[in-house]
């Protein structure tokens, strides 16, 4: 069964664009926090928020039908697009979990989120070497997210400007069914 309106639901759209903003903000904060450690609590808090939003999003995605690809889309492109989406879901869990594991392996642990919510540590041994390794893998995983993002945005632009189909629009807020009918 597919979504009745053949577009993503409002919650999917809201979470998609919120996560885009939070991931970009967290990469900028991560770069800035090398010189300004006071930004680190924000990095942790935003990262854990991305983790929680992704869990909600995956649950919602499984429970609700999603829009089909346009019939004109060739099989290779469907496989590539879905592969990128699955890669994103895996990485949106893996990147924050690796960051969380990094701080959990450190002496001070994770501490609080948003300055007042006590947060627990992941069950990893406290070890400076492990902390360093996890930190590097966490950072390396972000490069993979950037690679996925490159293909993802290239695909979105291709659909919008070359194929001129509904794919980009159905991930935008507020598009009504009547407008979609015109385009399908
Ligand atoms: C959307 C989620 C996240 C993104 C995109 C992200 C991105 C990054 C990036 C790009 C760096 C490298 C900074 C640099 O060295 O230039 C970094 C470092 C770091 N992040 Fe994250 N991060 C996320 C979530 C988290 C979370 C949830 C935590 C902890 C609870 C965390 C803890 C850390 C730590 C401790 C470092 C320093 C690693 C080291 O010492 O080598 N991150 N993060
Ligand atoms: C870090 C940034 C981003 C992440 C993690 C991300 C993640 C995702 C994921 C996981 C999906 C699949 C939804 C599903 O079917 O379950 C999706 C769909 C989509 N995204 Fe992104 N996205 C990002 C940035 C962007 C940007 C910058 C654009 C626009 C230029 C964009 C446009 C779209 C569109 C149009 C779809 C719908 C594709 C379809 O209908 O099959 N995304 N995104």
Descriptive report:
This protein has 184 residues and is an all-alpha fold. The chain has one domain (10-183). The chain is built from five helices and two strands, in the order αααββαα. It has a two-stranded antiparallel ribbon with strand order 1-2. Strand 1 and strand 2 form a beta hairpin. The protein is elongated. Mean pLDDT is 91; it is low at 1-5 and 177-184. Bound molecules: protoporphyrin IX containing FE (2 copies). One protoporphyrin IX containing FE (HEM) is lined by residues 23, 26-27, 30-31, 34, 43-44, 47-48, 50, 95-96, 99-100, 102-103, 110, 135-136, 138-139, 142.
Strand and helix layout:
Blueprint: H1 10-32, H2 40-63, H3 75-105, E1 112-113, E2 117-118, H4 128-163, H5 177-183
Antiparallel strand pairs: 1-2
The structure holds protoporphyrin IX containing FE (2 copies).
H/E element order: HHHEEHH
Helical fraction: 55-70%
Q: What Rg, in angstroms, do the CA atoms define? A: 19 Å
Structural class: mainly alpha
Q: Low-confidence parts, pLDDT < 50 over ≥5 residues?
A: 1-5, 177-184
Total domain count: 1
Major sheet = 2 strands, antiparallel
Q: Give the amount of beta strand, in percent.
A: under 5%
What compounds sit in this structure? protoporphyrin IX containing FE
Q: Order the strands across the largest sheet as they lie in space.
A: 1-2
Count of helical segments? 5
């Amino acid at each position: 069964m597919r979504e009745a309106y053949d577009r993503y639901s409002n919650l999917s759209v809201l979470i998609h664009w919120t996560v885009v903003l939070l991931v970009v903000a967290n990469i900028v904060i991560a770069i800035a926090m090398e010189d300004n450690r006071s930004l680190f609590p924000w990095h942790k808090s935003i990262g854990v928020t991305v983790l929680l939003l992704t869990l909600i999003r995956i649950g919602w995605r499984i429970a609700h039908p999603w829009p089909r690809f346009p019939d004109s889309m060739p099989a290779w492109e469907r496989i590539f697009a879905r592969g990128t989406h699955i890669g994103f879901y895996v990485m949106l869990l893996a990147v924050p979990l690796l960051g969380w594991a990094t701080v959990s392996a450190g002496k001070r642990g994770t501490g609080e989120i948003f300055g007042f919510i006590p947060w627990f540590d992941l069950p990893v041994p406290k070890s400076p070497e492990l902390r360093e390794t996890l930190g590097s893998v966490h950072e390396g995983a972000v490069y993979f997210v950037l690679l996925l993002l490159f293909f993802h945005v290239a695909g979105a632009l291709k659909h919008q400007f070359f194929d001129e189909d509904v794919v980009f629009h159905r991930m935008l807020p507020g598009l009504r069914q009547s407008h979609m009918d015109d385009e399908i």
